[in-house]
Structures are given as structure tokens and as C-alpha cells.
Design goal:
single chain; about 240 residues; alpha+beta; Glutathione S-transferase Yfyf (Class Pi), Chain A, domain 2; 4-stranded mixed beta sheet; about 60% helix; binds glutathione; Glutathione-S-Trfase_C-like; EC 2.5.1.18; Glutathione_S-Trfase_N; GST_C_Tau
Length: about 240
């Protein structure tokens, strides 16, 4: 467990990118925790009781108290365990820089994630193409954000990984899997060179190597889910 009486339990399921964010934050802080795998078809009493509003993973349970929503959990971990790990904070110390970092985390959640989801969950080819268009626009915006936030340093957080790195880093395997499934580049070396180099650098961190789901596995998982969704849609159209 986390030490000095702290008990941490993570309700998760492979290969959720939102769970990956929390695993990254816990790993960066060097915190140990119990991983409790969830069945999202038959949700456990523990999940339903811990996240009664959204009923989604991840949930972090700290000494019996649940914290929900991956971006909030990551910030909670940083604030609850300020001295853990190598000592580097995920949130900047300066209030203005904290606000800027939180803005970009919200941008990833509100713009990047829904566009990425639409690239493979869109009901028609047009919806998927529109998702890809919006995703590439978000990538272009994030390329500028990386330039401004990093100020020539390796990460959004500067010399060390910050909350924006964790928010976007948790999605890297899925972005790569989507590139393979869609047959087009998202973190394109030519159109978004800083972001492409950042993704490579982030993926090489020890914590990322341990935690990021294997890309081929994610591709297989996504194909399986898409086939299931297509079969369910076909069955529904017959009724
Ligand atoms: N905004 C949420 C998204 C979490 C989410 O979508 N979790 C999915 C798994 S990847 C889930 O629990 N789905 C179950 C459901 O929707 O019933 C977060 O960042 O934590």
C-alpha cells in the first residue's frame, strides 16, 4: 500500500486509457496499490457504490474514500501525496501555470477524447471522417500548447512530467492503435513534429513502459469491440 497507513485501491480494466492515466500518476509517485479488475458488463457493487453518478472506471479508493474521473484522480494523487516518488509535482507550483495546465487537461478531455472516440465509434463513415478531422485539428492545437508549455523542454510539464503529459500520455497506445486501424497518422512527424517526438519520449519513460497497454493488443481489443457493436446494431435493425 502507499505507506504510513494509506490504503489505495484502483478499480480498473485493461486497456482503458483513463485507467492508464491513474496508473501513470501512481507509478510516477512510486505508490503501491491494489488493482481490482472490473467487469463492465456486470458492474460490481463496489463500483456502483464508489461511483454512483457515472458508474465508470477508474475509481481510486483512498482509505475507503472514492475519487472519480481520471483527470481529477490524477490531481488528487498529486495533492494527497506531495512528497511521494522522485518529489516532482505533477501540477505546477505557480497558480497561473496551474490554471494553464488544468486548461489543457480539460482541452484533452473535451476536444481530443470525443473526436478520437468518433473516429472509430462514428455510426457512419462520414461521422468517422468528421471525427478524424476534429482530432487532427485538436492535435494541431496541442502542438502549439506543447511549444508554449514546454518552453523547449521535454514535456508539457517542462523538465518533468506534468498533468497534461499524464492526461495525453494515457492515450498514447490508443492513438497508435487508431493510426493502425484508420490507416492515417495522428501524431504526424511532419504536421505535429513536437507532439510526435513527445509521444516517443513519453513512451520510453520507465513508468510508461510498465503501464501503457501493448498497441497490438489494443488493436485486437478495438477490433473485437467494433465487431460486437456491428453485430448488436445488425440484430437491432432486424427487430
Ligand atoms: N471521463 C471519464 C471516462 C471514464 C470512462 O469512459 N470509462 C469507461 C471505460 S474506458 C467505463 O467505465 N465505461 C463503462 C460504462 O460506460 O458503463 C474519466 O476520465 O474517468
Amino acid at each position: 500500500m502507499a505507506g504510513s497507513g494509506d490504503e489505495l485501491m484502483l478499480l480498473g480494466k485493461w486497456p482503458s486509457p483513463f485507467v492508464t492515466r491513474v496508473e501513470l500518476a501512481l507509478g510516477l509517485k512510486g505508490l503501491s496499490y491494489e488493482y481490482v479488475k472490473q467487469d463492465l458488463v456486470n458492474k460490481s457493487e463496489l463500483l456502483l457504490a464508489s461511483n454512483p453518478v457515472h458508474k465508470k472506471i477508474p475509481v481510486l479508493i483512498h482509505n475507503g474514500k472514492p475519487v472519480c474521473e481520471s483527470s481529477i484522480i490524477v490531481q488528487y494523487i498529486d495533492e494527497a501525496f506531495p512528497d511521494a516518488g522522485a518529489g516532482a509535482a505533477l501540477l505546477p507550483a505557480d497558480p497561473y501555470e496551474r490554471a494553464v495546465a488544468r486548461f489543457w487537461v480539460a482541452y484533452v478531455d473535451d476536444k481530443f477524447v470525443p473526436a478520437w472516440v468518433a473516429t472509430f465509434r462514428g455510426k457512419t463513415e462520414e461521422e468517422k471522417a468528421e471525427g478524424m478531422k476534429q482530432l487532427l485539428a485538436a492535435v494541431e492545437t496541442l502542438e502549439g500548447a506543447l511549444k508554449d508549455c514546454s518552453k523547449g523542454k521535454p514535456f508539457f510539464g517542462g523538465d518533468t512530467v506534468g498533468i497534461v503529459d499524464v492526461a495525453l500520455g494515457g492515450l498514447i497506445s490508443w492513438v497508435k492503435a487508431t493510426e493502425l486501424l484508420a490507416g492515417s497518422k495522428i501524431f504526424d512527424e511532419e504536421k505535429a513534429p513536437l507532439l510526435a517526438a513527445w509521444a516517443q519520449r513519453f513512451g520510453e519513460l520507465d513508468v510508461a513502459e510498465k503501464v501503457l497497454p501493448d498497441v497490438d493488443g489494443v488493436v485486437e481489443f478495438a477490433k473485437m469491440r467494433l465487431a460486437e457493436a456491428a453485430a448488436a446494431a445488425a440484430a437491432a435493425s432486424k427487430n
